[in-house]
Amino acid sequence: MNSRVPIAIACGLAAALCNLAPQSGFPGGLMLSLVTSLPLFYAGLTQSWLWALVAGLVATGVMLAFGGGWMALIFLAATAMPVIVLVRQALLAQPLQDGGLIWYPVDRLAWWLGGIGLLFGLGVFMVMETGPFRETVDQVFQAVFATAEMSETDLARFQEMFRRIIPPVFAGSTMLLLVFNGALAQWIARRSGRAVRAELPLAGLRLPMAAAVALAAASLGSAVIPGDAGLLLATAAAVLSTLFVLQGLAVAHRLIGSRTGGGGGLAIFYVAALIMLFVLTPLVILMLMLLGVADCFLDLRRRNTSGTGT
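Below the sequence we write its predicted structure tokens.
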């Protein structure tokens, strides 16, 4: 048997187990669910996107057997397909005259990630507009209304705020989880000597100034335009904000790496950032986003490295 087959099957089983862990009552099940896409990324980044597809289909079959049709369909669309698309793009390469390869640029990969995030936000928006979902939400808020003694006006305002927040938050968080799992899978693949792509330089991400202008326009529009149009603009702003969070992380990586020589300094930075992310999530994300936006106009990485030889 081709050695790739058991690896893909094992990765698919691992992804399905991670996804099913919260429902099974397994200790730490919620944390495991956050790395559901990690085995699928590993299968693809160590072999090819076709093997990520095989792993995804294996996991979908397990979900169908133990979770039912809807759960399998949601897993395929929301977990497997984004990984397959990102792996396929990440492993695109063109040959150079010297026999080397030039890999698909990380900037373009970021825009694919943004497109996936936008689709997620729109998908959540459409689901929220369906009758069964709205009925469930109304029942939940009626229960809150009964226990919290809220006025009908406050309840309606809270419902509208909930409706406007969920799609953007879901889009941004999905993008960050994909980046985390993809980067971790690539790191594991490189450490094990099985990586197809030699590097995935997220620290080199650079967004154009037009993206910063679009972020400002979408943010302003979402604040002043009511209804569904404002909600769609808020989702677009969340996607662009997440991309700038990644650029801010790239800037911090370069600045800290150039001053500490990389290695231990970067490791301390990422551990500290992860701890702060859990404790001060909104503040950390805002700071990284502003750093990324500033880099668009000030080119902080070039200013820092000019004349340093790094």
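The longest strand covers residues 93-95.
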